[in-house]
Amino acid sequence: MYRGKKKIPLKGTILFYEKKLESIELIINELLQYAEQDVVIIVEGIKDVRSLKRLGIDGHFELATHRSLLDFCEQIAREHDSVLILTDWDRRGDILENKLVRIFRSLDIDPDVKLRKKLSSLVKADIKDVEGLASYVSTLKRMSHHSDYTE
Is it the case that residue 1 has pLDDT exceeding 90? Predict the structure, then answer.
């Protein structure tokens, strides 16, 4: 993998990364379906929104980190029935996800966290957040079209 002009050895084979890309693209397709259904997609910051939009996901995004979580969840629960939580897969994102799930369930909304868990299991070793997802997908696409990466 390249970082700038420096060649970095891969952690797996090209085929491994091609399969990973295919799996991520399936999740992106699921996210597109959520966006089309006007499900609220909760992220941590504006850079997460930008990354998802670069991937073609133009849904209803809400930032969970700009006000009280209880007020935030209550407002969303008043206006929407379906919520997808897509916080980062670092420690802070895990804590935020748990708090959001707990609050939403107390408001009779069962938020979807399945896609976050799928993404996390696929990319956690390589990237830590939603913000890096678009760049990561772009890198995987470049890698699958080039055979000069070291293994």
Answer: no
d(CA 86, CA 130): 8
User: For residue 87, which amino acid is it?
Assistant: T
Q: One-letter amino acid identity for 43?
A: V
16 versus 106: the higher-pLDDT residue is: 106
Report residue 39: phi and psi, to 5°: -75, 140
Q: Both tokens of residue 20?
A: 């990973």
Q: Global pTM?
A: 0.85
Backbone φ, ψ for residue 72 (5° rounding): -60, -50
Q: Are 134 and 54 in contact (CB under 8 A)?
A: yes
Query: For the chain, which domains are there?
Result: 13-145 (3.40.1360.10)
89, 49, 79: which is closest to 66 by C-alpha? 49
DSSP 8-class letter at 85? E
Q: How confident is the model at residue 43 (pLDDT cuts 50, 70, 90)?
A: very high
Q: Average the pLDDT over 79-86 and give the result.
A: 95
Residue 116 near residue 87 (C-beta atoms within 8 A):
yes
